[in-house]
Design brief:
311 residues; alpha/beta; 10 helices; globular; disordered N terminus; binds 2-acetamido-2-deoxy-6-O-phosphono-alpha-D-mannopyranose
């Protein structure tokens, strides 16, 4: 889908983020050199996480927005995305999503031209163009969300890495232990992994309680967070030397929780200097995916340079 854009006239895009635990939507208006979010709203993911139920809840959220001036819909969705179709890698997050044509389903439900990106890819694009990467000379940028899952988005030479089959930059599905029983990072380091660990300690407050206890100085909680941060830091280190990354941006509910970024930096600092690189917090916070999905719709050239020239 191509969207010719006049640089001067304001353009409003509806944005939708389908995450592990919530659906969020807003309008994103691009005018001259500025970008504004408005009408932000959020609901919990429906208990039924199959495609039809999620599309119905998402369509209701979008239809509640004032759509008169809206020219298209940009979507950030958890799961691997190829040509608008979504496949869940983690079947606890989305059920029965096997190449589901989300782009077409949302187009049919809203009548808006729809473009779908993976949520971490969208957030990477949002942070590179309007967030923490904007002030940096980081053409090779990795975004990692530590949230329900652990997701990744990668810019190489200022271009968002996309693959024909959709399976790319999935940092959470890199394996974390050697051998046939090695678990993927996500099942050890994510918010959902910490929720499970908290429950096993008899704590009802999930990963948030782990963070609160660690901040209050409780040793077991602190060690468990360090373990998560060390696993993520090891992946960052590997990707830095493999890809020549300039910097990393961290997002997600756990990634942006008190103390997590500091733990990540400390764990990376324990490794030899060749693995070191700057790590920043997502400047757009939980809106990174919304902004990125909308910004992606706005530029045909799909390079950070083109996006900056445009804005
Ligand atoms: C999972 C995977 C990624 C996603 C990441 C973060 C699914 C359904 N999702 O690794 O595609 O980017 O989670 O997304 O397999 P979250 O919002 O679900 O945490």
């Amino acid at each position: 889908m191509s969207f010719a854009v006049s640089a001067s006239a304001p353009q409003t895009i509806a944005a939708l983020d389908i995450g592990g635990t919530k659906l969020a939507a807003c309008l994103v208006t691009f005018a001259g050199a500025g970008m504004t979010l408005s009408h932000q709203q959020q609901v919990a993911m429906p208990a039924d996480r199959r495609p039809e139920a999620v599309v119905a809840a998402a369509a209701a959220l979008i239809q509640a927005l004032p759509l008169a001036e809206v020219r298209a819909l940009g979507v950030a969705a958890t799961g691997s995305v190829a040509a608008g179709r979504v496949t869940a890698l983690n079947s606890a997050t989305l059920q029965d999503w096997h190449g589901f044509d989300l782009q077409n389903a949302l187009y049919s439900a809203t009548n808006l031209a729809t473009t779908v990106l993976n949520d971490a890819d969208a957030a990477a694009w949002g942070e590179a163009t309007w967030g923490a990467g904007r002030a940096e000379a980081w053409p090779d940028l990795l975004f990692i969300t530590v949230s329900t899952g652990v997701g990744g988005g990668l810019l190489l030479d200022g271009r968002l890495r996309q693959s024909r089959h959709g399976l790319h930059s999935e940092v959470g599905f890199m394996r974390s232990q050697a051998g046939p029983d090695g678990q993927a990072l996500e099942y050890l380091a994510s918010g959902a992994a910490l929720d499970g660990w908290a429950a096993a300690q008899g704590w009802g407050g999930g990963s948030r309680e782990v963070v609160a206890r660690a901040e209050a100085g409780e040793q077991a909680a602190s060690a468990r967070l360090d373990e998560s941060a060390a696993l993520v830091a090891a992946k960052i280190a590997d990707l830095k030397v493999a890809l020549g990354l300039d910097g990393v941006v961290i997002g997600g509910g756990l990634g942006l929780a008190a103390g997590y970024l500091g733990r990540l930096r400390s764990q990376l600092a324990l490794l030899p200097a060749l693995y070191h690189l700057p790590i920043k917090a997502a400047a757009l916070g939980s809106a990174a995916g919304l902004v990125g999905a909308a910004a992606w719709v706005m530029t045909d050239a799909k390079s950070v340079e083109a996006q900056r020239e445009h804005s």
